[in-house]
Design goal:
- The chain is an alpha+beta fold.
- The chain contains ten helices and 18 strands.
- The longest helix has 17 residues.
- The protein folds into three domains: about 110 residues, no CATH class; about 150 residues, Jelly Rolls (Sandwich), CATH 2.60.120; about 80 residues, 3-Layer(bab) Sandwich (Phage tail protein beta-alpha-beta fold).
- Strands 1, 2, 3, 4, 5, 6, 7, 8, 9, 10, 11, 12 and 13 form a 13-stranded mixed β-sheet that branches.
- About 30% of the residues lie in helices and about 30% in strands.
- The chain is globular.
- A hairpin with a 5-residue loop joins strand 2 and strand 3.
Length: about 325
């Protein structure tokens, strides 16, 4: 589906179908936009704003609701192109940040909470210490938005991508990590979450404590509330909201998952494994056979294995033909 300025306007006015919304979010999360794309979006936002302030406010309020933005920050308006260039792969939740800054300045709030964004570049990770002392290890190609201070009855942050989180205990103030698919609600625990917008599934693996997964208000992916116990990993299909819960050995998982060089895959689709390898190793990998893309693997690589070592493990049954052409790795079914 081609994303046009008309479709973008429908999206930000909350007036498009689930398929259209999914197409827009996929396009926003891609990194191949040209200058004319950015200029066109600036024109779109200017047109909405100038045409009718009430309409603009309503449009952004609806978008904020769809993104589950529960608080807003007073500040200066920022151009959309600036926002987009900050983090192309973090489009959906950067949009939440953008909406928060779109409100008019309020002079009587000198101590307004500021939102901060941390981005882990491809091939690297970032350690983030949140205002409450919680520690988040942000994985390659991932972004996190969090406030300079937690106020009110919850501690809420926004994630696109993958992180390992060790959350400070505070039963009186639950911690909520929001993604485009779901909210993960905890009071104090350790877990790993994968929620890249381009992946087929979102995933939460619980190491310690307890977590509750909730459907996000306005999400295009329906999801019932799910409670996890240590050693549970849940997959949420991004297209239909179907969940898949399995078990893993949590004894060493936390230490392994927090390592920058580690690759840990729990019942993961091969298409999403390949996507992660591409992000973290900065390589282009293509699967040409859909039946290979849907295969699932439990694999752990924590001893500095190379890409060739990992691909050889996945191809232990020799069902794949792996070739290289012009810097791209192509994986097809072995017909022999």
């Amino acid at each position: 589906m081609k994303v046009t300025s008309k479709l973008l306007e429908k999206y930000f006015l909350d007036n498009c179908s689930p398929d259209e919304a999914y197409a827009v979010e996929q396009w926003l999360s891609s990194a191949d936009k040209q200058e004319e794309d950015l200029a066109g979006m600036n024109v779109l936002f200017d047109r909405i704003d100038k045409r009718n302030d009430a309409l603009a406010d309503e449009a952004f309020a609806k978008c904020a609701e769809r993104l589950n933005l529960q608080s807003r920050t007073a500040g200066r308006r920022r151009k959309f192109s600036t926002w987009l260039n900050v983090s192309l792969v973090f489009a959906v939740f950067a949009a939440a940040l953008f909406i928060g800054y779109w409100v008019r300045p309020v002079a009587e709030e000198p101590s307004a909470v500021e939102f901060r964004e941390v981005f882990a570049r491809r091939g690297s990770s970032e350690k983030v210490v949140l205002p409450d002392g919680s520690v988040v290890i942000l994985k390659s190609g991932s972004s996190l938005i969090y406030p300079s201070e937690f106020r009110g009855g919850t501690r809420e942050v926004y994630l696109s991508g993958e992180c390992y989180a060790s959350i400070a205990k505070n039963p009186e103030c639950p911690f909520i990590m929001s993604t485009v698919v779901m909210n993960v609600r905890v009071t104090g625990t350790e877990f790993n979450i994968k929620a890249f917008p381009e992946d087929s599934e979102a995933e939460v693996a619980l190491v310690e404590g307890s977590v509750q997964l909730e459907g996000r208000s306005g999400s295009q992916t329906p999801l019932q509330t799910i409670s996890l116990t240590p050693g549970n990993v849940v997959k949420v299909d991004r297209k239909n909201g179907e969940t898949r819960i399995s078990e893993f050995n949590a004894t060493n998982y936390g230490e392994e998952a927090a390592k920058e060089e580690a690759f840990v895959f729990l019942d993961r689709r091969f298409c999403d494994i390949v996507s992660e390898l591409g992000r973290r190793l900065d390589v282009n990998i293509i699967i040409t056979d859909p039946s290979l893309a849907d295969r699932r693997f439990y694999s752990s690589f924590v001893n500095g294995e190379t890409l060739d070592d990992m691909l050889l493990t996945f191809n232990a049954d020799r069902s794949m033909n792996i070739s290289r052409e012009n810097g791209t790795i192509k994986i097809s079914r072995n017909r022999i």
